[in-house]
Amino acid sequence: MYRNEFEDLLTWKTKKNRKPMIIRGARQVGKTWLMKAFGKQEYAQTAYVNFESNKLLKGVFEEDFNINRIITALQIETGIVIQPENTLIVFDEIQEAPGALTSLKYFYENAQEYHIISAGSLLGAALNRQTSFPVGKVEFLHLYPLNYIEFLNAKGQQALVEVLNS
């Protein structure tokens, strides 16, 4: 399957002053799929954390925001040796770990070499719970459901897509 937003992620990946990315969108629009597919295609490895199903890692972000300690904890939990040049770090359902959301500021300020994408379908609700939000320290990408052309491509209807595009 192909999503148009994949191109936006490719541009983000090569930015010199790259900020952590937050993908926003309704439930079931493909945020997790997009992050995993991007990691698989564009990086040697992906360190994936889902804060909804992994309650243990939430605590890592409650003590402080020491990047080396956080990276070490992520490596232990995911079994991936995180190398900035070839590892994508994915924080899924980030609204479940307010400290992880806040840590994005510190990744931007102190460790821009890391490639971090996060997502959360209920992120708006989390922001209303007095969560410290890294304003100006993250980029946003809004993901909508498949558009008609993406749907046709996913169904293998490239000939019809060509006709519509012409």
The counted number of beta strands is 5
Distance between the termini: 22 Å
- Which value, in Å, is the CA radius of gyration? 17 Å
Question: Spans with pLDDT under 50 lasting ≥5 residues?
Answer: none
Quaternary structure classification: single chain
Tell me the overall shape: elongated
Q: What spatial order of strands do you see in the largest sheet?
A: 2-3-4-1-5
**Number of helix segments?**
8
Helix coverage percent: 40-55%
Class from helix and strand fractions: alpha/beta
Order of secondary-structure elements = HEHEHHEHEHEHH
* Strand composition percent: 15-25%
What does this structure look like?
With 166 residues, the chain is of the alpha/beta class. It has 8 helices and 5 strands. It has helices spanning 5-13, 31-42, 60-63, 67-78, 98-110, 123-127, 148-154, 158-165; strands spanning 21-24, 45-50, 87-92, 115-119, 139-142. It has a 5-stranded parallel beta sheet with strand order 2-3-4-1-5, with helices on both faces. α5 links the parallel β3 (87-92) and β4 (115-119). The longest helix has 13 residues, at 98-110. The mean pLDDT is 91.
Layout of helices and strands:
Layout: H1 5-13, E1 21-24, H2 31-42, E2 45-50, H3 60-63, H4 67-78, E3 87-92, H5 98-110, E4 115-119, H6 123-127, E5 139-142, H7 148-154, H8 158-165
Parallel strand pairs: 1-4, 1-5, 2-3, 3-4
Question: Concise description?
Answer:
The chain has 166 residues and is α/β, with parallel strands linked by helices. 42% of the residues lie in helices and 15% in strands.
